[in-house]
Amino acid sequence: MSGGIDYEETEGKKRKRKLRLQFTPAVYNKLSPPFVYQTNPFQLHSLPKSIKMLPFSQNSHYKLSFLLLLLWVSHLVDSKSGFELDDSLTYLWPLPSEFTSGNQTLTVDPTLSFSALGKGGNSKILIEGFERYKKIIFKHVSGISLFDKSRGIRSVYDISELRVIVNSDSEELQLGVGESYTLFVAKKDGKSIVGEATIEANTVFGALRGLETFSQLCAFDYETKSVQIYKAPWYIKDKPRFAFRGLMLDTSRHYLPIDVIKQIIESMSYAKLNVLHWHIIDEESFPLEVPSYPKLWNGAYTKWERYTIEDASEIVSFAKMRGIHIMAEVDVPGHAESWGAGYPDLWPSSTCREPLDVSKNFTFDLISGILSDMRKIFPFELFHLGGDEVHTDCWTSTPHIKQWLKDQNMTAKDAYQYFVLKAQEIAISKNWTPVNWEETFNSFPSKLNPRTIVHNWLGSGVCPRAVAKGFRCIFSNQGAWYLDHLDVPWNEVYSAEPLEGINNVSEQNLVLGGEVCMWGETADTSDVQQTIWPRAAAAAERLWSKREAVSARNITLAILPRLHYFRCLLNRRGVQAAPVTNKYARQPPFVAGSCYEQ
Question: Which residues form the Glycoside hydrolase family 20 catalytic domain (predicted)?
Answer without folding.
Answer: 242-546
